[in-house]
Amino acid sequence: MSHRYRLVLAPGQEAGLLEHCRHARFVWNLAVEQHQYWRPGRAAAPGLAEQCRQLTDARAAFNWLASGSVTVQQQALRDFHQAMRRFYTGTSRRPGWRKMGTHEGFRQVGLRADHVRRLNRGNGRVWVPKIGWVRFRWSRAVPANVKSYRVTRDVAGRWHIVFASRPEPILAPGNGQTVGVDRGVVVSAALSTGDLLYCPATPTNARRRLVRLQRKLARGCLRSNRRRRVKVAVAKMHARTRDRRRDWVEKTSTDLARRFDVIRVENLTVANMTRSAKGTAAEPGHRVRQKAGLNRAILAAGWGHLVSRLEHKAPGRVEKINPAYTSQQCSRCGHVAAESRESQAVFRCRSCGFECNADVNAARNIAAGRAVNARGGDRVAGPVSREPQLVTSAT
User: What is the model's pLDDT at position 44?
Assistant: First the structure.
């Protein structure tokens, strides 16, 4: 878990931060090159201790490298070896090259208590090696006993500092209530209580301006100053969209973790659902543009981010249910029929005549822990109880 804050840089401090980023990126890329050089029959790539000794020799030979912080450069090597361990355990991809303008950041460890201070209600400052005190916006309390932080610069040119900490999870309210969450494109999250939650969309005027900027970017000359300014403007608009989505996810996940003891969601693999449908040259895909639009809508709704934050804030209280036929099953009588879902928003059971919002009906099935097999019979997915839904009246 991390707490992120916006940095407020004084004149001249950005150059020092970029120098730290260049040193960390240079050391990282050297480590990547050494590991990619390995082939069967060659000696093993150097380990962390050997690379730290090589870094000492390099700092003695090159003054521009010695002018930087040794802790920043050594921490880049430690981060690389941690990424390699995750790659070998199968939890992440193989670490690759870092590019200027895209991967701008560095980590600082060995943080003392007096290295982070609060100046006033809205500002604080942190000590950065070789630079001094750097101010940041005190948007919320900094966690106690932090030992490290990471400074990053996004493509929109914004600097942030992230303090690593292990916060306490949100305690269950103890009311015994269970909620089902059905994620969708039109309705970002429908609850079994009947609530419909919408992830904030980009305003219409902002979308129009983004289209104009993207067209201007496509017409610009490569490596020109004007094209670089337009590229930054496009990145800032995308950053605002991400901030809106992240803010909605944080508030929604906190609210659900505080209100309900058990939170049940569909067991969806978002990465597979948002893969491109373009296919290959030999076997081209079909309806590629339509699938690309659906992928953008799914990602804009924050499906994966919402569930991951729920698991962070309510560990052990999030249950994933098989999503099979939850949108076609009646939450009152259990009858399954594809014709019952008349449209995106209307569900009318062909057996008992129960009428409800289609997304809320699916959320009630998820709350009950139902999973329907191919033959139409109900079965409870995993060790879940069959308590009644929170909302039983027709809507």
Answer: 84
**Rounded Cα distance, 318 and 309, in Å:** 10
C-alpha span between 225 and 217 (Å, rounded): 11
Q: Name the DSSP letter for residue 223.
A: T
For the chain, give every domain's residue range. Answer: 2-164
Contact call for residues 249 and 183 (beta carbons, < 8 A): no
**Contact in structure between 3 and 153 (CB atoms under 8 Å):** no
Where b means 16+ CB within 10 Å and e means fewer, 289-301 reads eebeeebeebebb
What is the bridge-based pairing of β-strands 262-266 and 178-183? parallel
Catalytic annotation, pick one of 79, 104, 319, 359: 359
> Is-contact 28 22, C-beta < 8 A?
no
> Residue 258 has which token pair?
């505080």
Q: State the catalytic residue, choosing from 104, 182, 311, 319.
A: 182
Contact criterion met (CB below 8 Å) for 261 and 317: yes
pTM across the whole model = 0.82
State the DSSP code for 341: B
* 19 in catalytic set: no
pLDDT tens digits along 209-241: 999 999 999 999 998 999 999 999 999 999 999
- One of 19, 79, 266, 311 is an active-site residue; which one? 266
With cut-offs at 50, 70 and 90, classify the pLDDT of residue 370.
Answer: low
Q: Are 150 and 71 in contact (CB under 8 A)?
A: no
Q: What angle do CA 301, 143, 24 make, to 5 degrees?
A: 75
Would you state the torsion angle of the CA atoms of residues 33, 80, 155, 151, taken in this order, to the nearest 10 degrees? -140
Which segments of 196-253 are extended strands (E)?
A: 196-197
Tokens linked to 386:
């069959």
Q: Mark whether 243 is an active-site residue.
A: no
288 membership: H or E segment, kind and range: helix 288-300
Residue 14 to residue 265: CA distance in whole angstroms: 43
Tokens (6 digits) for 295: 């992928």
Element (H, E) at 163: strand 159-164
First CA to last CA distance, the chain:
39
Antiparallel, parallel or unpaired: β 189-191 and 196-197: antiparallel
266 is catalytic: yes
